[in-house]
């Protein structure tokens, strides 16, 4: 395992961090994954208040196996739930209880996308509260995770004495949200950078279009698609930790192998050159930039928004009938009483307010429905239902 220095705290952080948003459903497998990662040198674990029961699961594993002191624990404040000063402490104490700890190493304001949100928090006293928490060593480092436009990021990093920040960044999103410009600006300010969505919700690992996969294999057949994505990031000096939401030992082992040589300028000229045609092939095949984070859910009407988008993208990247089959499965369209497809959308806009990718969801759902539910869709579903009923 390679490590990079957090110059603010002096901590040596593993270049590979464990993103804890999506754990396996099996408790034993989750524990095995986390403990294997720690034994292999991973020392940065990232969770959040809104990640379902992630904090509770992670805290239980750390406490039961007496490994809390071996890692740096990161979690996030859901600032949208903070309406008054007392909310900061109420939410924080809940997190400490879930995580079975009395301090947080890296605490983030979660998904703050604009300076106006930070100013609103300042008006109810967040700076005073953070100062007290840091003085008591209950919070060691304070940062923010960002999903917004570049100008918002550049304003935010100058608005407070942050200790670190977290941004979405990968070879498909080089100029998206904070992007490379934000990355370099934070680096110039000596801010450690935590990278999320390094593989675009797994799409750069398991969802590569065939053309893109062939380009990588022709360059080096020994590397997995995930390894290519991680190496692109670690080739740069700015990222401190790259988070990966690993949910199998195979994924963990592959990422650990890649992390062994994770150093700036690790890519050859030939390896660096392959990314441009890969990006072109990916953009040609994928139409909606959904990462499957599920922040848009639940839909008030029950539409499986990420499922619809995934099927739609698959229909272009792999083939229409592969996507169609996926659409049937994810929307329950072959069981009309359990239908969660695009035609249920009433364009209320609730989802769009929560999407960190700023996707025009209602418009995109319309495109999905038009492609995935053609004129023959209804009769076909009736036939399938009759034959399988």
What is shown here, in short?
The chain has two domains: 3-283, TIM Barrel (Alpha-Beta Barrel); 305-388, no CATH class. The protein is built from 17 helices and ten strands.
Mean pLDDT: 88
> Helix coverage percent of residues?
40-55%
Number of helices: 17
CATH architectural type of the largest domain: Alpha-Beta Barrel
Uncertain parts: none
What integer value in Å does the Rg equal? 22 Å
| CATH homologous superfamily caption of the largest domain | NADP-dependent oxidoreductase domain
Number of strands: 10
Query: Largest sheet, if any?
Result: 8 strands, parallel, barrel
Q: Supply the helix-strand structural class.
A: alpha/beta
- Following the backbone from N to C, one meets helices and strands in this order, namely EEEHEHEHEHHEHEHEHHHEHHHHHHH
Task: Count up the domains.
Answer: 2
CATH class of the largest domain: Alpha Beta
Strand order of the biggest β-sheet: 3-4-5-6-7-8-9-10
Determine the strand fraction and express it as a percent band: 5-15%
The CATH topology of the largest domain is: TIM Barrel
Our measurement of the CA-to-CA distance between the termini, rounded to an integer number of angstroms, reads 54 Å
Shape: globular
